[in-house]
Amino acid sequence: MGDPVRSSKTLTRQQIIALLSSAQQKGDQDTDWPYKPYDWRRCRYFTDQQMALIRRYLEKVAVSINAVIEGLCQIRMKTSILSVDQQYASALVQSLPISAQDYCLPLVLSEAQDKGLMVLPGQAASTMVQWLLGVKDVGEGGEEFSGLEESLLTDCVKAIAQCLNQPDAMIPVAVQSGLIKGAMGFMWDQAEAILAVDIGIEPQEKEKIQIRVMIPCRTIDALVSDLASDNQEDKRSDTTAIMMGHLEHVLVKVAVQVGVAQMRLEEVMGLGPGDVLVMDKSVHDEFDILLGNKRVFGGTAVIHKGQLAVMVTG
Fold this sequence. Notes:
By secondary structure, the protein is α+β, with helices and mostly antiparallel strands. It has 2 domains: about 50-230, Chemotaxis protein chec; about 255-310, Roll (Surface presentation of antigens (SPOA)), CATH 2.30.330.10. About 35% of the residues lie in helices and about 25% in strands. It contains 7 helices and 11 strands. Strands 1, 2, 3, 4, 5, 6 and 7 form a 7-stranded antiparallel sheet that branches. Strands 8-9-10-11 form a 4-stranded antiparallel sheet, with no helix packed on it. The radius of gyration is 36 Å and the shape is elongated. The model has no long low-confidence stretch (mean pLDDT about 80).
């Protein structure tokens, strides 16, 4: 075989650089490109659909928290889920510095003794104490609480944590200690996936506070499975309701069977006007109301506006 055919014209180094630069500029301007680059640093423990189910569940939690805070503080509140994110533990800890004035509530999750954490910033703790005591002026945060104030704050935060247990699908939360002031040691493996939830609590015409709850993703695997199953049931229920909405307008034939007589074929062929057929029922027995040759009700004969009718009896 001979040598492969070579181009008679080769590109110079400057031409190659110019072509690459042109291709790069075109790619930067192409906004219709449907794909996104994969970021391996981003935690993807749950899918987008699962995260949507989790947020829906947490919105129920927010309603329960709102009721608890209103009951304890006697103030109209508005509680909402500000953000729901999944992150690796190492990145989460770096993005969430806990100061010496902040409060932490350790959570024990599931029988496997997984650890969760609720973080209440110092200013938020001070504000919450003011709400609980009914004091209008909010301090700067960081001051030492009295025994009564810390007890009220602890009870309030524990009550908020218990709201994670919704009756329809529970996150198993247990609180085995009180509030801890200041940063805690590292609780999770660096690569462990953590669900971080920011909750906003805002009273009317007062300062808004924010609480963060952090739960290992693996702890709520069962919850997500339950939510997905419930979501499928909801979809099936919606489909059934739609189908029934259409079927309700379909015309069906309802028949009334007075009785049944068994005869030989030669007797049937010999029937004529004036002959009497004896049914298998007495005059006092119920008629059968049939739908598609299947008995659905019993009934008795009546007259309605001059027409023969059947009254349903059961």
